[in-house]
Design brief:
With about 100 residues, this protein is mostly helical. The protein is built from five helices and two strands. Strands 1-2 form a two-stranded parallel ribbon. The chain is elongated and about 75 Å long.
Length: about 100
């Protein structure tokens, strides 16, 4: 297959024939570079243990007010008022975390 034929096929979106062996490759078919699937014997993966996330002032400061409110509601059952400043919300949440842990 000539260069221009392959280029027009590529631009038109038509696929070129795939070469499965050397003879087809020599005839002009495109080589197959797709990876082959390797079957796994047994399940070698180990389950990941859930770790307790430690919240620090820095990690909480990177969150938005909405994220802080959702974290307080979900993990610590605390309602935070988003009308307050972010620094105040971080202080309240850190106080709650220290009391809980």
């Amino acid at each position: 297959m000539s260069f221009f034929k392959r280029l027009t096929n590529w631009l038109a979106g038509t696929s070129a024939p795939v070469a499965n062996d050397i003879a087809q490759g020599m005839a002009g078919a495109m080589p197959n570079y797709e990876p082959t699937e390797v079957p796994m014997v047994g399940d070698e993966r180990t389950p990941v243990k859930p770790t307790k996330i430690k919240h620090t002032k820095v990690s909480l400061s990177k969150m938005t007010k909405k994220q802080l409110e959702a974290l307080g509601r979900k993990e610590f059952n605390v309602e935070l008022d988003r009308r307050k400043t972010k620094a105040t919300l971080v202080k309240e949440l850190l106080g709650t975390i220290k009391k809980a842990g």
